[in-house]
Design a protein that fits this description.
heterodimer; A: 570 residues; alpha/beta; Rossmann fold; 3 domains; six-stranded antiparallel beta sheet; elongated; B: 429 residues; alpha+beta; archaeoglobus fulgidus dsm 4304 fold; 2 domains; nine-stranded mixed beta sheet; 15 helices; 11 strands; binds adenosine-5'-triphosphate; binds magnesium ion
């Protein structure tokens, strides 16, 4: 029990105390904001005895004041160029007053540090101690009763205190990770993935930027027991998902009038969908439509195709629209392809059919990355929706073909925007809602990552039981974090705008209580192929293509020609 | 028009007759023109240099003590717990010294017959009436005792400044029935009275008369007058016209003005409530000062202000020297009092000017503002600053190692605002 006697005393409890917080005066900068400190009090033990217990708290704020420094003086010092160190003005009366929010108490005679809610205020004028790191670590993890703690970093205020979060809650109860661009979200996700890979937990990442390709590169070296698969999307849609085809055509193409829509409908009904590629299918629609147009313009006036009642103009518009959709899809595929080609030493595979071969995507010890770079929101959403829906079905079935798995959605505002964003009918919204509400039952956990939490679907966000927030400057998003997460300590959310890269506040079911943390940065996991965009060195290495070179070479000659051409004769 | 002047104007407008109202500025103008002539004739106005960026480095190694007292003014029914403190801010930047110190602290309940400060006088009717006077006397004596402490400490101060007059007006305490201090308190205030601290020393039991404020304070003042370093009392706004009246009185005595003119001018000053502040505000410019003149504080002209059974003792009080320094344009000049004529007037006043200019809007010694904040007890109980204050209370209590103070401090620290109405646990028997 005499743990406390070994701890260093760092201050004295001040003023009135209650069961929620206390103030203490801090000696010589011996603790920081966010630090865990301890003091003592007496509580009745339930058997009529009074026992002395250790009270734990977190430093929420530190005020430093030089109360005796008159403000006006500053003005004169500046105006007259006076050095304060020459004057009689006090400079050493800085007083550090810490506000501590009480976490609970632990009994002194138990080795396990089980936190109980405090029912009696702390002792005024008691000493405040700085517990050693081991004891703090014990406290942080004790209440979680975590069978699978995973290491993510250290207490922000105290590097020697390791922070572990509960993996079981993480993979089933959903996590929301927010923070502005560059604040450290992806670094954190990679940290978690690394840990879960050690536990052979299957994961699927929707990777828009290629932030996770480092896992492919370092697969053998760092995760020899795991399989890391890299997929590119295949726009293949099953016939039962025909709705999606319709949405895609509707959203990617031109807006259609009612008769045009009717025509499109009858086209889709007529042309049998073969489960190969969406592009092929649309091309088939176009061919079919062209036939109809021909027939419409022939002598039969469309009688042979049964399309006589439709105006030729309507058919044309639909045809053009379909043409546009194909063009867009092809261009997206090509963009994605170009990006893949840049990383020649990475092996990309076409995404297998999740309906028939889900084990190729989700399997024990495997990390699957679906590389979505180049795809616009709508097709990307369709891809996510189709894949996740199909995997979810496999989890729902009685004979489970795939194990529980975790899905990681980066840039989630693209896939699950809030209703207020007016991006209605993104197919992924419905799917993710289903996954997240049933996730606990079927082991389809989600990790949702976004820069703009305020723009996410409210239903989905409300299902995330843990929340990690990195730096947030945007007022709306700050408010969002304060409002949606009752587990966040109000004082903790105040520091959101001031956090540095990799510093975040973590709260919810994966931890005992809201904690400011410094996430460990696994630099080896950065994708060294593209790394962070470095346009400067791209330009440094730049060499024009041959055609460009030639164009440049002749440009001068041509311009002099056109100049003389324009010159008016005198 | 400046604040104080304006206030005074308003005051006379509200309180005075129609004629008085109409004439205030007019009269002030006339009186000031006369006083300025006298000042010039007597060569009283001095110009001070203000070159802070070069002066401060030379002041850096001075050891200076700023002293102030504070009272707890929290009204509490049925009980009169009173905290009286006098504290110091002692600074010498070159020696890296910035010390905040409570020199004298008394926590007493004036309604407690066993209180440690005053003899209890069993007359209820007096108690209420005299409560404020008792508080004042206690504060004054604590401040004086602090100056005594500093002299006794043997520390080589360059200056010591007291927030308030160097010698208080005594009349309020001459009233019949004003209680004497207790033996314990008296020994605390004037420890030198029994000679060197010596175990063999025979404790002299002092008579109630010896323990009366008028006597105890006199002992302090006499001791302070012998100080090896200059001690100045500083008053922010003078509400009297002591300087002006004494100036005129001296002038009359020298025969420069007639008794009739003297009397009429004094009457005018009284009637219009013209103060030194009003006058010197007009007369002095920024960075100017008035040389100190000798003043018998307890006298008015050549008569005691008010006759009482203490006349003989009061006559033993030394004269003081009173001067003025005007540090800023926006504020009245500050009154500087000493018991001895300054040996280095220009230098000392120059220093006062520099320290005062650190409060450019206020024109008052910044060091006194610092110690004032440190020692003020009225604020001490206010919610906002209580946490800060309480640290100090506790630290002080622990430093003093006085069990009484420690236990009271703990009580205060741990209880709600009003709940600490607890008497010190240890009682004098
Ligand atoms: N825990 C950390 N320790 C040290 N540096 C970090 C940490 N986290 C992030 N950084 C630095 O910040 C950079 C950006 O981090 P990261 O890629 O995680 O940002 P992000 O929040 O995912 O941003 P975006 O929303 O733009 O994707 C990292 O490359 C790294 O240099
Ligand atoms: Mg990122």
């Amino acid at each position: 029990m005499k743990k406390r006697s070994k701890w260093q005393t760092i201050g004295t409890v001040l003023g009135e105390t209650n069961i929620n917080e206390f103030f203490f005066s801090l000696k010589n900068y011996q603790a920081k904001k966010g630090d865990i400190v301890a003091t003592e009090t007496n509580v009745p033990d339930g058997n009529g005895k009074i026992i002395s217990v250790t009270v734990w708290g977190k430093i929420m704020s530190i005020d430093c004041s030089n109360e005796w420094f008159p403000r006006q003086a500053a003005q004169e010092l500046a105006n007259e160029d006076i050095d304060i160190r020459d004057t009689i003005l006090p400079t050493t009366r800085d007083e550090l007053i810490c506000k501590v929010s009480i976490l609970g108490y632990t009994k002194n005679n138990e080795d396990k540090l089980k936190l109980l809610p405090l029912v009696y205020p702390v002792k005024p004028a008691a000493s405040v101690d700085y517990p050693n790191s081991n004891d703090v670590e014990k406290l942080l993890i004790s209440d979680l009763n975590s069978k699978h703690p995973i290491y993510i970093g250290s207490l922000l205020a105290r590097e020697s205190v390791e922070i572990k979060i509960d993996a079981d809650n993480l993979v089933s109860r959903h996590v929301l990770i927010t923070g502005m661009s560059g604040s450290g979200k992806t670094v954190m996700v990679r940290r978690i993935i690394s840990e879960l890979m050690q536990k052979m937990f299957p994961m699927l990442i929707y990777d828009i930027h290629g932030d996770y390709l480092g896992f492919v590169q370092k697969n053998k070296q760092m995760f020899p027991n795991n399989k890391v698969k890299l997929f590119y999307p295949n726009l293949s849609i099953k016939s039962e998902d025909k709705e999606i085809i319709y949405t895609l055509i509707e959203k990617l193409g031109k807006p259609l009038t009612e008769p045009q829509n009717d025509y499109l409908n009858s086209l889709i009904n007529k042309v049998k969908y073969e489960e190969s590629s969406l592009i092929k299918y649309i091309n088939k629609l176009i061919t079919q439509s062209k036939d109809y147009i021909k027939d419409r313009n022939s002598k039969t006036k469309g009688a042979s195709s049964g399309m006589g009642h439709i105006k030729a103009a309507t058919m044309f518009v639909v045809n053009r629209s379909l043409g546009q959709v194909v063009k867009k899809l092809v261009s997206m595929e090509q963009t994605n392809f170009r990006h893949r080609k840049k990383m020649a030493n990475l092996k990309f595979e076409q995404l297998p059919d999740a309906g028939t071969e889900p084990e190729k995507i989700i399997s024990k010890g495997q990390l699957s990355i679906l590389y979505l770079k180049g795809y616009e929101t709508l097709p990307a959403s369709a891809i996510v929706s189709i894949l996740s829906e199909s995997l979810f079905k496999h989890r729902q079935e009685v004979e489970e073909e795939i194990p529980p798995f975790l899905t990681i959605i980066e840039e989630a505002h693209n896939f699950i925007p809030s209703r207020t964003e007016n991006k209605d009918n993104l197919p992924s919204v419905e799917t993710i809602r289903k996954l997240i509400t049933e996730g606990r039952k079927f082991g389809t956990g989600l990790m949702i990552v976004s820069q703009r939490p305020a723009r996410l679907d409210e239903t989905i966000v409300s299902q995330c039981n843990s929340h990690i927030s990195f730096r947030i400057k945007n007022q709306k998003d700050q408010k969002f974090v304060r409002d949606t997460s009752e587990t966040f300590d109000a004082e903790d959310t105040k520091q959101l705008p001031a956090l540095a890269n990799g510093q975040g506040v973590i709260s919810g079911q994966v931890v005992n209580f809201s904690l400011p943390v410094q996430i460990k940065f696994d630099e080896q996991l950065l994708n060294t192929d593209i790394g962070n965009e470095n346009f400067i060195s791209t330009v440094e290495k730049w060499d024009d293509k041959e055609t460009v070179k030639l164009r440049k070479k002749f440009a001068k000659d041509f311009s002099s020609i056109s100049e003389s051409n324009q010159r008016r004769p005198h | 028009m400046n604040n104080n002047l304006f206030l005074n104007y308003i005051n006379s407008a509200i309180n005075g007759s129609k004629v008085v109202q109409a004439n205030f500025l007019n009269v002030l103008d006339k009186v000031s023109k006369t006083v300025i002539k006298i000042c010039n004739h007597e060569n009283l106005i001095i110009n001070l240099d203000y070159t802070p960026s070069t002066s401060w480095p030379t002041y850096k190694n001075k050891t200076v003590a700023f002293v102030d007292g504070g009272l707890d003014k929290t009204p509490m029914p049925s009980s009169a717990p009173l905290t009286i403190r006098a504290g110091s801010y002692i600074v010498n930047k070159a020696a890296n010294e910035q010390l905040f110190k409570v020199n004298n602290s008394k926590i007493v309940d004036l309604f407690d017959p066993d209180n440690e400060l005053y003899d209890f006088i069993d007359d209820d009717s007096f108690e209420d009436m005299m409560l404020n006077k008792k508080k004042d006397a206690a504060r004054i004596i604590c401040e004086a005792a602090t100056l005594v402490n500093h002299i006794q400490s043997g520390k080589k101060y360059d200056f010591c400044f007291l927030h308030g007059p160097i010698q208080a007006i005594l009349t309020p305490f001459t009233q019949q029935g004003f209680p004497p201090f207790t033996q314990l308190a008296t020994e605390d205030f004037i420890p030198f009275i029994n000679g060197k601290k010596d175990k063999e020393r025979k404790k002299r039991r002092m008579t109630p008369e010896d323990r009366h404020f008028i006597k105890v304070y006199l002992e302090c003042i006499k001791f302070i007058k012998k100080s090896p370093f200059p001690i100045y009392g500083v008053v922010e706004t003078a509400v009297s016209a002591a300087y002006t009246k004494n100036l005129l009185y001296n002038f009359k005595n020298k025969g420069h003005i007639s008794s009739k003119d003297y009397k009429e001018t004094i009457d005018t000053i009284n009637k219009y409530r013209i103060t030194d502040s009003n006058l010197f505000e007009i007369i002095l410019k920024r960075n100017q000062a008035l040389k100190p003149i000798e003043i018998q504080k307890q006298f008015y002209g050549n008569k005691l202000i008010q006759r009482s059974m203490w006349d003989e003792v009061i006559e033993q009080y030394p004269k003081i020297f009173m001067g003025y320094v005007k540090a800023t344009d926006n504020q009245s000049p500050i009154r500087i009092e000493t018991l001895n004529y300054p040996k280095n007037l220009i230098k000392d006043f120059g220093y006062i000017l520099c320290v005062s200019r650190l409060l450019p809007n206020y024109g008052y010694l910044a060091g006194l503002a610092v110690v004032d904040r440190f020692v003020k007890i009225s604020n001490f109980m206010s919610k906002a600053s209580r946490n800060y204050r309480s640290t100090h209370l506790l630290k002080q209590a622990i430093n003093n190692k006085d069990q009484n103070t420690v236990s009271l401090a703990l009580k205060i620290l741990s209880k709600k605002n009003r709940a600490w109405i607890n008497r010190p646990t240890k009682r004098r028997k």
